[in-house]
Design goal:
Order of helices and strands: EHEHEHHEHEHEHEHEHEHEHEHEHEHHH
Strand content: 15-25%
Bound molecules: uridine-5'-diphosphate, alpha-D-glucopyranose
Mean pLDDT: 95
CATH superfamily of the largest domain: Glycogen Phosphorylase B
Shape: globular
Low-confidence stretches: none
CATH topology of the largest domain: Rossmann fold
Structural class: alpha/beta
Largest sheet: 7 strands, parallel
Number of helices: 16
CATH architecture of the largest domain: 3-Layer(aba) Sandwich
Length: 383
């Protein structure tokens, strides 16, 4: 099956990292068309996935856009759409991985007469998007997509609640290669030494720096934890959230936590860094559509505390394979962190359970099979 994947981002967010795993099995007959240049292109190339940057001009539609702004940018999109229509004729299928890719992909699907698949990585609700953006995404998916792949039940439910067609949407979780999360003990010791983490109880947060990812909740919680609890914040502001980064640094200074919080920026050694932690926290204040970091922490055998909303509730069962806390409640988070610090045996058992079940449930080979089957059954295309 020849697939033209489309993604608007030049930077590797979770949706883009997921796309690498999805595109890999098709790499001999596929192209990933990006609407921006950047490090995501390099990552695709490292994975031997053909990639082309199709747009050089940034597409100015934000999550809060109005209809007028949207229409204006549609006119600007004309050269990109023309390019995508031409490309699509060389492929059997268009696979849109982001919302702007859906807009371009839907129009290209119409003109090239190629079926469209939309991989929905978002919860289409007012907590995340303007009403206009939700309406555009739902209408385009309803009108043009043969299949919508939702990254969780939570994303599927929000899609249907916003008027999305039930008959075209299927849930497929992100897939992971468990082997990638097995690390060398000597590498971890070295990392702990380099980062000055020895002898500390290290809580890790792995996410781009953005207000709804809630790094401020962890910092606040830290001030309520015993002094040996230290945090590493791994990730960068990928989509221009510089004010938030500034606020986080100010919060750390105000609470006098300079020696207990380390900002590590964007890193590519996530399995090693997670393994160097005692605990991984997820603190999103709006419902997380899926939450790759939660599964990754489980695969590293680390206890994980996640914010109880959205897709995270499908990944974590409190007390069985992790812990769930009320989103936006630093006091509750501090309590769970302190319990994990004290109850090491139970916590380790929970983390081990999580590793075993996550290795099976989110195995990339099984997930890729599910996608291949859906593409074949729903689109009646050659395998
Ligand atoms: N990640 C990374 N380097 C960083 C921070 C995060 O590679 O410095 C990865 C992380 O391991 C995860 C992804 O980025 O695979 C984030 O995906 P998630 O679903 O957790 O959140 P998103 O950012 O997509 O909303
Ligand atoms: C999006 C979501 C995240 C999800 C990822 C992969 O970036 O914000 O929750 O894990 O896509 O599906």
């Amino acid at each position: 099956m020849r697939i033209l994947f489309l993604d608007q981002s030049g930077k590797p967010g979770g949706a883009e990292l997921c796309l690498i795993d999805i595109a890999k099995p098709y790499c001999n007959h596929a192209l990933v068309g990006l609407f921006a240049d950047g490090t995501f292109k390099d990552l695709l190339q490292q994975n031997h996935i053909p990639v082309e940057v199709l747009a050089t001009q940034a597409i100015q539609v934000s999550k809060e856009s109005t209809l007028a702004q949207g229409l204006k940018s549609l006119v600007k999109l004309a050269p990109l759409i023309t390019k995508v229509v031409k490309k699509a004729r060389e492929y059997d299928l268009i696979y849109a991985n982001t919302q702007k890719a859906l807009v371009v992909g839907a129009i290209a699907s119409f003109f090239s007469r190629r079926p469209l698949v939309y991989h929905l990585h978002d919860i289409l609700s007012k907590e995340h998007f303007s009403q206009t953006n939700v309406r555009i995404a739902v209408n385009l998916a309803n009108g043009f997509a043969s299949l919508v792949i939702a990254n969780s039940q939570a994303s599927k439910t929000a899609f249907v609640q916003a008027g999305g067609r039930k008959d075209i949407v299927e849930v497929v979780y992100n897939g992971f290669e468990p082997k990638n999360y097995q690390t060398d003990e000597s590498d971890i010791n070295k990392l702990q030494q380099d980062l000055g983490l020895e002898g500390k109880f290290v809580v890790g947060h792995f996410s781009r720096l953005a207000p709804w990812k809630g790094q401020h909740i962890l910092i606040d919680a830290l001030s309520k934890c015993p002094p040996q609890v230290t945090a590493i914040l791994v990730g960068d502001a990928l989509f221009g959230e510089q004010d938030y980064v500034e606020q986080l640094h100010q919060q750390v200074a105000k609470l006098g936590l300079e020696n207990r919080v380390k900002f590590l920026g964007f890193r590519s050694d996530i399995p090693q860094l997670m393994t160097a932690c005692d605990l991984v926290t997820h603190t999103s204040t709006s419902p997380e559509p899926f939450g790759r970091v939660i599964v990754e922490a489980m695969l590293c055998g680390k206890p994980v505390v996640a914010a109880k909303a959205g897709g995270a509730m499908e990944l974590v069962e409190h007390g069985l394979n992790g812990f769930l806390v009320t989103p936006g409640e630093p006091q509750e988070l501090a309590q769970v962190i302190t319990t994990c610090l004290q109850e090491t045996e139970i916590t380790a058992t929970i983390a081990n359970n999580a590793r075993t079940t996550a290795s099976k449930r989110f195995n990339v080979a099984t997930i890729n099979q599910q996608i291949a089957q859906l593409l074949c059954n729903r689109l009646s295309l050659p395998a």
